[in-house]
Amino acid sequence: MLTMHGFLIPSTDLLMKLRTLYPDAMQKKSISFCLKICYFIRYWITELWIMFKMDANLTKTMEEFQELVKSQGEELHWHLIDTAQINSRDWSRKLTQRIKPNCSKKRKVSLLFDHLEPQELAEHLTYLEFKSFRRISFSDYQNYIVNGCVKDNPTMERSIALCNGISQWVQLMVLSRPTPQLRAEVLTKFIHVAQKLYQLQNFNTLMAVIGGLCHSSISRLKDTTSHVSHDVTKVLNEMTELLSSCRNYDNYRRVYNECSSFKIPILGVHLKDLIALHEAMPDFLEDHKINVPKLHSLYNHINELILLQNIAPPLEANMDLVHLLTLSLDLYYTEDEMYELSYAREPRSHRAPPVTPSKPPVVADWASGVSPKPDPKTISKHVQRMVDSVFKNYDLDQDGYISQEEFEKIATSFPFSFCVMDKDREGQISRQEITAYFMRASSICSKLGLGFLHNFQETTYLRPTFCDNCAGFLWGVIKQGYRCKDCGMNCHKQCKELVVFECKKRSKFPVGENTLPSDHGQPGNFTAGGKGSTNDCSAGDEEPFSYPHGDGDIHTEVSKDRTIMLMGSSAQKISVRLQPAVKHRATQTENEPLSPCLQVPSPQHCRMTDPTNHFPTSPAPSPCPSPVPIRKRAYAKWENKDSIRKAKAEGRGAKPGTQELEKEKSLLKEENSALKIQLGDAHKRIETLRAELRKYAVDNEQHQKGS
Q1: CA of 195: how far to CAs of 227, 240, 312, 555, 624, in Å?
Q2: In angstroms, rounded to a whole number, what is the distance separating the alpha carbons of residues 13 and 180?
Q3: Helix, strand or coil for residue 527?
Q4: Which of 318-327, 515-524, 658-667 has the lowest mean pLDDT?
């Protein structure tokens, strides 16, 4: 009865009633009744001490009660109410202890999604699910039943968020592939994962995976599902039927009751049962008597779930893969954003009638809308653990770098957009760079904002300048780009939201004679040459969910032309112009499945292009169905920057030699030649525009004379 009292009266109110009864009994000289109260409280503290750990008001009230008993002069009573043992309990042991592996031999597990077997993926998802499930206490179940929501119930909220995160991750991993064939491969893989989850008797994660596959953003992909084999589709239908809500989840309940040993139930189904039982039966019977059968029934149902937490799963987890999955599941997307991703992959056919929105056959609707945002400290911990795991497995020579190809393969496990600045080494990515990238990507996806943003100001450059984010040239006559007032970084208007390196503020940074700052906050004025700023890998606004709308001026067309970059199986950046009807707010997709790959142009490449067209020609997507990333040069590098050359010179700690000076001189000559060619092309373009303007003026004058 003491365990279930929360259904009838708050714990603090119950203790206050006991506090009122004790002095009354002392006045009546009823020492035996006072002893009963003290023994009752002693049992409460000893057996249900976790209630006091989770309720600060209850602990404070108990300490006040102890002082009251002490003031009455009864030493025996005062020693019975020992609040010191509350703080002496190691209450977090159950929450933090790791699941012990069943095998003594540690196995090697790949960190690449495309190389992971369905069995391995199912086991590690089960590890994460059980770790979250076993943290739910008796009080958490009780609070959810009484309140009907997860407010002020962080443990239950995290469990629900994990379920939703897995469901969204499944959808995004399918939508991250550029072609229907590759999407079908991922879809098939997750169906096999669902089979393994069923064998592990992990029904809660099974519900999340099947719910993601049955979501209308995935089920509407007809071109994708047409490449899924009949046998695999049959398995999906069987799983969908198993988890169907028909007849109050009758199929699931029958299979679940037949299971023994380790199993993880569908938490939403059992919580609904508890809420229904709580609402159907009254708390009190006639003459204000407590409805004891109701409390017994609720206790039996909750205790059954608690007992399942003591059965360890029959699996062995690789913590490196656990860290990778933990970070990749930190996703927070709305239904509208999911549909935009889906329609960007396979646009709606004009011939087919519009699809009527319908409820998916499998959905944990009790968990909808729950996506708590972790604090920056939690995100930093997840990122650091993942980075440590990556370098432990891929930095074999322990020099603090991994190759570009290795990181591209790792990034396929994340539905983040992919743009890395290879700042330190040619083709090598440092620990700091990968940490900065994932910190920004995770912060954006969790919609936390960033604490290291630059203070960009629109600037007019009087000398040729390159973008520090994408290495592209800052085109235009005035207001070509943005410059950080604190650290001096230069970038395109489209690239200023993509910078992943934090702003290292300086005491004072002179603007210099080669720049003219513009009024901060004014929209950029692009001339004819301004369009050239879109020929880099970061031509679009990549920050998810916060794309600014058009400024409403003559340059609204520039704001509508956004590049959405996706790290898919082919590891290619895809440039797409979004029409006003489909203003994308996410970053993990592109508008057309067969859009070409956008590559970063070099100055030499610009010599071979038409001076009137600053957009690079793009090759067709690779027909190779293999999910192994194939990308020659789709990442931005810090090039043509005096600051980088200066940093490298300082790092050597000595004056450069003759060969190094000659090499640098040769490099500067090549850059100067390329810039001269580009400048000449720009002059030609300006002269062409002037000629067209003069011709237009003459034609207009003749037309006026003729009229």
Answers
A1: 20, 12, 20, 53, 28
A2: 61
A3: coil
A4: 515-524
